[in-house]
TrEMBL record, chains A, B:
GO terms for cellular component: aminoacyl-tRNA synthetase multienzyme complex; cytosol. L-aspartate binds at E176, R219, T369, R373. The keyword Transmembrane helix does not apply. It comes from Sellimonas catena. This is Aspartate--tRNA ligase. Keywords: Aminoacyl-tRNA synthetase, ATP-binding, Cytoplasm, Ligase, Nucleotide-binding, Protein biosynthesis. Its EC number is 6.1.1.12. The gene is aspC_2. GO terms for molecular function: aspartate-tRNA ligase activity; ATP binding; catalytic activity, acting on a protein; RNA binding; transferase activity. Residues 198-201 are annotated as: Aspartate.
């Protein structure tokens, strides 16, 4: 029938820009956005922002078939150009412009200057104008590195036999509770947004033994600090047939080692641009919570205060001390007090006041919380009752325990916090594309 | 300091079960959950469910150091066993049990029989008892295939230069509107849950040229049908420097080809278990919307009704007709009426009543909606005004257009719908781990 056309699926990428060097001496066509124009008399330096690079171009009246005035920043173009070797250029080449087809032009100039080395503005303005400030070379490098992190995490976990899952973000209001949840009306029923995939990943341990999820979680915390986001991306894994909490920490240490090694290979350019050095390490120190409190008290020259809490300030002091003592930017804090951990945390047999759990601090900030969970049904119900909870509310969660679950545990890693530590940002918002905080719902 | 231990990150997987064949004649240790016991006199057939397989084991009183009564379904164990070649077994081996360490026992038997060939129950019960029914071999194969799909999509898109992004799921209430959004209170402001990452992925085209996201989306649709979910996983991509809508369809066709080829290689066992055949195809037919309406009217022997809508029943008829005519289970419907597409859809130059857009139908069900978008600021604002919308509400979205965007387009693919079509399920809920529909908030 004549009206039917056929779509075959032959697609190609734009000629990979880094291979431009191989085309030295040739004429190529290349598309991108004009990032910056530096006009001289009769010629101009032009930077072309392509999907992955910023390419140096030279406009000269002799060579170009179009006038200098036609060049406009943030217009999208196809250049016809000669590839010329140029050692001083980052890509090893320079493009000598011959022809230009303009695909689109901006309506207005960006209200913020985006084509300098960095966007020189307050964090509020940086975030308010995210749709354009992200076009800055350094800003966009941040999220390419973040993508490098998630790619590496996936590759690592898949290699270790983990299955990736997608669990619901809307749930029944009874299950989690607490003040920090966002509530919504779900066809007349009260529902909440998931603070974590905790219950689901535990259930799924009974199905696949090892599972992970990288997905948004939502916390209605009213903290307005440089380390809190109300929506963030949580990297969660959960694994069965684990009886020692150290096995979880070993898995995380191996994962982070793999992530760092992958970034070095795959995000070289972005890391260089942001002047980030990937830490070299062989092992991560681990220190019990109570001991950590003592150390911090000693540093502060005071008695131990609030023996069940490790305050952000204390986390910083501990991290600094560990860095000095061991050279490590990462430190596990283990054996958290029972009272401060959730009802599913497994208590230590030798000291029921502490749990088989841990946090991971990275340059002074908690980036991971993890631990062994209770897998025995009666034990879990008993602990709930001790805490005044109602097990019947958790019927479907407890169904997994009731019908048999292996010993298991897992952890959650905050992607934005981890990225911000790696890149040395004071404010975690810089590592979120479009952050949500107590004041910020747009863009 | 003695209190500091060190976590080095050496982890290993359980001996990969499929390599058991290489250990024929040896004694191995293997952990898993006892899936099924068939007791005979003095011996028993035992199925062990491991992370990826179900392994046939034989218990005999002569060989085993434990009694038959100690074996219990859904208990988690470590078996010590001799690997014996057995051609009739799916893994090529059989384990002759010697020793057993019990790690956990269920508190109660599962209320639903989960260890038959399939879970023989209504879909409501299947879903009510998801934490245990997912342990069924066929049920869990579904989501391994789904994971195979997302893995393949990621690999394909990364290979084509796409960057994966994470965009917020909570947004300002002004932007999307419409009846089908979930609203929530965000620290005193009205907010909504994202129905799609549409605005954000368009903004990001200005940053990375090609982006994708695989993440939950939320639709408060009151439809109680076999094809609707109120929360689902959307596979979205958006690409710049595209001027023909066919380029988007080519990209999707290539992606699906890659997905099918990958599944064949990586999910062989699961596909065999579910008796799914991966379709072979060279190209996907494409047919204009108006023509599709005519064809369907002809089949029904009626005049064209509701010329701007393609009803689910009509989608089915069209798909059946295309299958008969061309042998294809997939069909693109193109040139959707302007009135039925969102404000950002690009209209055709030759006929402003239709858009440069398409749907993809797979075995009678719409699985993808896509198209070119308006990239020009003034054109977008004019179209909004024609529709009675207020451009000022969309300030941050339009900032991208205002400051220059390349011609671009993209699409969204519903992961659960796609999975359910591939696997031949009548009900899309079967392809969601923990589905959310108008009645279902748990588990």
């Amino acid at each position: 029938m004549e009206e039917i056309r056929y779509i075959e699926g032959n697609v190609k990428n734009q000629q990979e820009e880094l291979s431009l060097l191989e085309h030295a001496g040739e004429i190529v066509e290349i598309h991108g956005s004009i990032y910056k124009i530096r006009k001289m008399r009769g010629f101009a330096f032009v930077l072309l922002r392509t999907a992955k690079h910023v390419i140096q171009c030279v406009y000269s009246e002799e060579k170009a078939s179009f006038s200098l005035e036609e060049l406009e920043e943030e217009s999208c173009v196809i250049f016809q150009a000669e590839v010329v070797k140029e050692e001083r250029s980052r890509t090893g080449v320079e493009l000598h412009l011959i022809g230009m087809e303009v695909l689109s032009r901006p309506y207005e100039k960006s209200p913020v200057v985006i084509n300098q080395k960095q966007v020189d503005t307050s964090i509020a303005t940086l975030l308010d104008y995210r749709p354009v400030t992200l076009r800055n070379e350094k800003e966009r490098a941040i999220f390419r590195i973040q993508n490098g992190i998630t790619n590496a995490v996936r590759r690592f976990l898949q290699g270790k036999g983990f299955t990736e899952i997608h669990t619901p973000k809307i749930g029944s209001a009874g299950a989690e509770g607490g003040a920090n949840i966002f509530r919504l009306d779900y066809f007349g029923k009260e529902a909440y947004l998931a603070q974590s995939p905790q219950f689901y990943k535990q259930m799924m341990v009974g199905v696949y033994e090892r599972v992970f999820e990288i997905a948004p979680v939502f916390r209605a915390e009213k903290h307005d600090t440089s380390r809190h986001l109300n929506e963030y991306t949580s990297v969660d894994f959960e694994m069965g047939y684990v009886t020692r909490v150290e096995e979880l920490m070993e898995m995380e240490a191996a994962m982070l080692k793999f992530v760092f090694a992958s970034l070095k290979e795959e995000c070289q350019e972005e890391l260089a641009l942001l002047q980030v050095e990937i830490p070299e390490w062989k092992e991560i120190p681990a220190i019990p919570f109570a001991k950590a409190k003592e150390i911090v008290a000693k540093i502060r020259k005071r008695a131990v205060e609030e023996p069940e809490d490790l305050e952000p300030e204390e986390e910083k002091l501990l991290s600094e001390w560990i860095l000095k003592e061991t050279g490590s930017e990462l430190v596990f804090v283990t054996e958290y007090p029972e009272k401060k951990r959730p009802f599913y945390a497994m208590d230590s047999e030798t000291n029921p006041n502490v749990t088989k759990s841990f946090d991971l601090l990275y340059k002074g900030l908690e980036v991971t919380t993890g631990g062994l969970r209770i897998h025995n049904y009666e034990e879990q119900v008993a602990k709930m009752k001790r805490r005044g909870m109602h097990p019947e509310v958790f019927e479907s969660y407890l169904m997994a325990h009731k019908c048999g679950l292996p010993p298991h545990g897992g952890l959650g890693l905050g992607l934005e916090r981890f990225t911000s530590r790696l890149l040395g940002f004071e404010n975690v918002r810089r590592a979120s594309l479009f952050p949500r905080d107590i004041h910020r719902l747009v863009p």
